[in-house]
Amino acid sequence: MKDWYDWHQPYADPASPLSRRMRLVQRHIVDWLDERPELELTVVSACAGQGRDLLGVLAERPDAARVRATLIEYDPRNVAVAQAEAARLGVAVEARCADAGLLESYADAVPADLVLFAGVFGNIGDEDVRRSVAALPRLCAPGATVIWTRTRRAPDLTPAIRAWFAEAGFTETAFHAPEDVVFTVGVHRLTADPRPLDPPGRLFSFT
Ligand SMILES: C[S@@+](CC[C@H](N)C(=O)[O-])C[C@H]1O[C@@H](n2cnc3c(N)ncnc32)[C@H](O)[C@@H]1O
């Protein structure tokens, strides 16, 4: 079993692949905020860990009060870290100790204008990835952006993931696959209509 608290240690090194991946995710969170003029925006992060990507951006944004976010994370130690950082920053971010693989865990947190799936698709089976991508319109507000990551370690599932996003009604707006690392960061915008969160059910389980 992985220790998901210790998993965050490489973030201490700004040159680590994990830190590089996070900076790409954060760049797209910044772009999304800059593109959206609304005074109220909703964010949900699945398997959010310590929420460093979103909280790191909000810490630098004078307009952080526009954002209401829910971080869904299973490990209570990571939830506590995220909640403490959100309180320190004074931002409207709730870290929720819940199973992000269950649709019912997203009640009251969605529809979201930004959905973060960072560090999820590399830890679940291919069929769970397919099911999760197909269900993403159920977490989305109209025109929502989804930022996702996935390793390209062989067999590379990212071509299939990109096709599944297209089938689910998303348009790709960015895709980063740096040659010297195995991580990938993808960004998709929902161009089809969102779908209701109900009925409840399971999207994925961590392997
Ligand atoms: C690979 S880490 C990614 C963390 C964060 N998104 C990031 O990129 O820094 C995966 C996280 O998912 C959490 N996790 C595992 N299974 C989960 C589940 N069923 N529901 C919610 N979180 C889960 C782990 O505790 C861990 O913090």
From TrEMBL:
It comes from the Bacteria. InterPro entries: MeTrfase_dom_put, SAM-dependent_MTases_sf. This is Methyltransferase domain-containing protein. Residues 38-158 form the Methyltransferase domain. Pfam families: Methyltransf_20. The lineage of its organism: Bacteria, Bacillati, Actinomycetota, Actinomycetes, Micromonosporales. Signal peptide: none annotated.
